[in-house]
Write a structure and sequence with these properties.
This protein is mainly beta. The chain has two domains: about 40 residues, no CATH class; about 140 residues, Lipopolysaccharide (LPS) transport protein A like domain (lipopolysaccharide transport protein A fold). Helices cover about 10% and strands about 60% of the residues. A six-stranded antiparallel β-barrel has the order 4-5-8-9-7-6. Helix 1 packs antiparallel against helix 2. The N terminus is likely disordered.
Length: about 190
């Protein structure tokens, strides 16, 4: 919500901008010369989110179908010349759906950022991808390319299936996590006894 501050004969100024100017003035007066750069960073609107929201749900559609649903406890969207991204500092859960709206796989992480111009989402910190068969991928960094519908990483991965555990470096997969390629396999552990 933007409030308007009007004075006689002068154009209206948004309350948000006025407050930033006033806060910046008082902080500059209270701080020493060396702290002026800190004040500039604090009052620079480019570093402030354009929108924030709690308990957010985003639907990603393609050709009229919902391809993915993302749930996040908190989102901050930045949109300016330098930044065009949505930040999910408290993590997120993404559900990938087929044309029948059935969940094919889901992705969870403790932090994520969507690069809006590139149409990519980067998930990091305790990333888990699970398909509808229960196969589970664990890694620390995973990128979802919305354009190609591919998920990939060059980091260490651990895949657990009912039959085995596969350790490796780097992976590329479809969003359903049914067809994947591991770039460098470190080892395989068979879980079923022969």
């Amino acid at each position: 919500m933007v409030f308007q501050l009007a004075t006689s004969g002068l154009p209206a100024i948004s309350m948000t901008k006025s407050l930033l100017i006033v806060i910046g003035f008082f902080l500059t007066a209270a701080c020493g010369v060396n702290d002026a750069d800190k004040v500039k960073v604090m009052t620079d609107r480019r570093n402030m989110p354009l929108e924030t929201g709690k308990n957010m749900v985003i639907n990603y559609t393609d050709s009229g179908y919902v391809k993915a649903k993302i749930f996040a406890p908190m989102m901050e969207r930045y949109a300016n010349e330098e930044r065009n991204e949505t930040v999910m500092k408290q993590g997120m859960t993404a559900y990938f759906l087929n044309k029948n709206k059935k969940v094919e796989s889901y992705l969870k992480s403790k932090y994520a950022i969507r690069l809006d111009r590139e149409r990519k989402m980067v998930a990091r910190d305790d990333v888990i991808l699970v398909n509808n068969k229960g196969d589970t991928l664990r890694t620390e960094l995973l990128t979802w390319d919305e354009t190609t519908q591919k998920i990939y990483t060059d980091k260490f991965i651990r895949i657990t299936t009912p039959d085995q555990i596969i350790l490796g470096d780097g992976l590329e997969s479809n969003t359903e996590f049914t067809e994947y390629k591991i770039f460098k396999i470190r080892g395989t552990i068979n879980l079923k006894k022969p």
